[in-house]
Amino acid sequence: MKLLFNTNFLYSPMDGVVAVHAPATVANMVCGFDVLGFAVKEPYDEMYIRFTDKPGVTIINLDAYNLPTEPELNVAGAALLAMLEEIPEPIGFELSICKHIKPGSGVGSSAASSAGAVVAANRLLNDRFSKQDLVRFAMNGEKVASGVKHADNIAPCIYGGVTLIRSIFPLDIVPLTAPELYVTIVHPQIEVRTADARSILKQQVLLKDAIRQWGNIAGLVAGLLQKDYALIGRSLEDVLIEPVRSILIPGFDQIKQLSKEAGALGGGISGSGPSIFMLSKDEATAKAVEQQMHSVYESLSLDHHTYVTTINDTGVRFVNQ
Ligand code: HSE
Q1: Where do the structural domains in the chain lie, given as residue ranges?
Q2: Strands 92-98 and 56-61: what pairing?
Q3: Atom of ligand 1 nearest to the CA of 34
Q4: Is there an atom of ligand 1 within 6 Å of 150 CB?
Q5: Active site residue 194
Q6: Which one of the listed residues 163, 184, 194, 285 is annotated catalytic?
Q7: Catalytic: 85?
Q8: Tens-digit pLDDT profile for residues 165-218
Q9: SS3 63
Q10: Pairing of strands 171-176, 162-168
Q11: Residue pLDDT, tens place only, 252-305
């Protein structure tokens, strides 16, 4: 990604600017469609916000993705507009965004923009709103991106760690503790639009599949809380969504099989894809998994990026406070 200029040293708190890093997130966590997600340490977007005299929201792009700057069409803009609706005084925000998380990659690019914007704006407002309020505002960005308000990227981006979204109407977010986990992500350079990946899903499921799925969700949550890696591995199974969506992702079955043979606990589609993620107990295994991912996509001559990272317990991070 070519930056228009180096943003790292642009602002200090003296400028009245709040700077944040908003991390990528992995939604669904295989079996928990729309209800589980976790934040990772890398990649992340850089964002800078300050008050302006002009009421409303002004968006400045510092990257080369050419995302819309009209606030209603920009995911971060939509999130800030939702926040402004609950602020009685006339306020103007100027938000500068330098994206490193490629839009359409399946690792929560839109959520990072929306969540980063409202967390940073809230700091300008002396933390007037609760985290739950911020999730509510940021979900308006997801509506712009995918047509649906879902929180399984937004909530972990704001809370950090692994989160369970027991309900979105009303919002009921449960942060979960988890053992140390290494995350290997491969992003094949194809685009899968979340709206498309949702539109192909079946609206009805068989009871026997639902039973298997909720057994896995409960097993995964228990495995995380009890730090039981074997239970986590057994529970990373999705009988509802993955069979439908995986056909959109070249090499999916092979990557999954080779990653497990390399020692991964398990994994699957990251969010709505096309990225694939695998969880491992240690860094050496996570790197071995990365090699398997490279080998599959090299054999398919498919451009791709990989990340070996860990779960991010902080979520959106202030970098100049
Ligand atoms: N839960 C959402 C989906 C996440 O799978 O459609 C999208 O990133």
Answers
A1: 13-176, 182-310
A2: parallel
A3: 1
A4: yes
A5: yes
A6: 194
A7: no
A8: 999 999 999 999 999 999 999 999 998 888 899 999 999 999 999 999 999 999
A9: coil
A10: antiparallel
A11: 999 999 999 999 999 999 999 999 999 999 999 999 999 999 999 999 999 999
Torsion of CA 159, 51, 140, 78, to 10 degrees: -150
Q: What pTM did the predictor assign?
A: 0.94
> For ligand 1, atom 1, which residue shows the shortest CA distance?
34
List, in order, residues 6 or more apart from 261 with CB less than 8 Å away. Answer: 292
CA of 253 to the centre of ligand 1 (A): 20
* Other CB atoms within 10 A of residue 130 CB: 10
DSSP class per residue in 271-318 = TTSS-EEEEESSHHHHHHHHHHHHHHHHHTT--EEEEEEEB-SS-SEE
Query: Is domain 13-176 in CATH 3.30.230.10, yes or no?
Result: yes
Separation of CA 223 and ligand 1 centre (Å): 22
Please determine whether the domains at 13-176 and 182-310 fall in the same fold group of CATH: no
Write the single-letter amino acid at 315: G
Mutate-to-test residue for ligand 1 from 272, 276, 277, highest number of ligand atoms within 8 A of CB: 272
Would the CB of 272 count as within 6 Å of ligand 1? yes
What is the distance between the alpha carbons of residues 101 and 108, in angstroms, rounded to a whole number? 8
**Ligand 1 atom closest to the CA of 106, numbered from 1:** 8
Cβ of residue 153 lying under 6 Å from some atom of ligand 1: yes
The CATH number of 182-310 is which of 3.60.15.10, 3.10.290.10, 3.30.70.890, 1.10.940.10?
Answer: 3.30.70.890
Pocket test for ligand 1, best of 26, 30, 33 (most atoms within 8 A of CB): 33
Nearest to 22 by CA among 102, 128, 109, 93: 109
Instruction: Give me the DSSP letters along 98-140.
Output: E--S-TTSSS-HHHHHHHHHHHHHHHHTTS-S-HHHHHHHHHH
φ, ψ for residue 224, nearest 5 deg: -65, -50
> What's the one-letter identity of residue 35?
V
* 29 Cα–ligand 1 center, Å: 10
Which residue in the list 142, 184, 242, 309 is annotated as catalytic?
A: 142
